Amino acid sequence: QATSRWNRGCTLAHALMDRAESPSQRQEAVLLAARLYGDGGKYQQALELLAPYAQGRDDLSLSCRFLGCELLVSQGKLEEAVEEYSQLAAICTSSHLASTSKEILTLGDKAAYRQAELLYSLGRFQEASAAFADYRRNHPAGTYRDAALYFNGEALAKEGFVHRGILQHETLLKQHPSSPYLFSSLLSLMDLYKKTGEYGGAVEAGDRLLAQFPQQAQAAQIPGKMAELRLLEQGMEQQQASLLAEFNQAGKQNTAEGRRLGLELAHFYVNSFGNEGEGEQLLLQILEYREAGEELVAAGAAALLGDLYRGQNRYQEAA
């Protein structure tokens, strides 16, 4: 039934082309027919239909060319689509200097952004970053300014320019506080600030996530990550901080997983100057709360505690 309706739609679109009373009416009918062909997966047929009408620089011709770009993407011809979007964006940018057409401005805006977006999708991050920057420079009031900032930040980070990536995300937060990319941008900032060792910035981003997106933040396990970040901010070694965060999240000494993680954490305490007391208390708790089937964890805790006491000349307790 759907195929029958689609065939009928194509027939009607061709009838509109035949009955068109002006070139513009015919072009509108061609656009309709090409969209229908695209919806039906007849991409090449749609492109061939559009080709004769996509040569000019008026609104309809450029609309035909833009639809051609979209069809190339649907075909999976992404490299070819990148080049077509680039050419179309250049035409629209030069055309709008002599034209007040809102349609041409909109097409140029879309084409420039889509070019950058496809470059990012193809993993050509250096080119994508340059294209996103060009988009914001050439389209200061563009529809996709916030998206361009987000993906430019991601592209820069993937190329190893972490601080430049951070700047893009921070600019997004300041200039577009209602952007749909806000949540993702804050997540990226948490990760990027952690990579650079700027734990205060990571904690600030996490706090904003918890305040502005409480349900999404819980689903993304932000509270657990925040526990680790706060410990890192206080100067704790990263591996130790990560273990402590996992230990707390697992229920501490009250669960089997917590006791297993607690034993790993106790090794850090016992072997770091000034934290031996915390290590002793943690090991005693593990032994007190252990259950049947946890002989290996209990033995490990007892052996570590014995070594600690021996090193402190507490021989009777060690024995």
Labels describing this entry:
319 residues, mainly alpha
Task: Give an overview in words.
- With 319 residues, this protein is an all-alpha fold.
- It is built from 18 helices and no strands.
- The protein has helices at 2-19, 23-39, 43-50, 59-75, 78-95, 102-121, 125-138, 145-158, 162-175, 182-196, 199-212, 214-219, 222-233, 238-249, 256-270, 276-289, 295-311, 315-318.
- Helix 16 (276-289) packs antiparallel against helix 17 (295-311).
- The longest helix is centred in the middle third of the chain and has 20 residues, at 102-121.
- The termini are far apart.
- 39% of the residues are buried.
Total strand segments: 0
Supply the number of helical segments: 18
**Structural class category:** mainly alpha
The chain-level mean pLDDT equals: 88
| N- and C-termini, Cα separation | 84 Å
Ranges where pLDDT stays below 50 over 5 or more residues in a row are none
> In which range does the helix fraction lie?
over 70%
Radius of gyration: 30 Å
Largest sheet: none
Q: In sequence order, what are the helices and strands, one letter per element? A: HHHHHHHHHHHHHHHHHH
Residue share in β-strands: under 5%
Overall spatial form: elongated
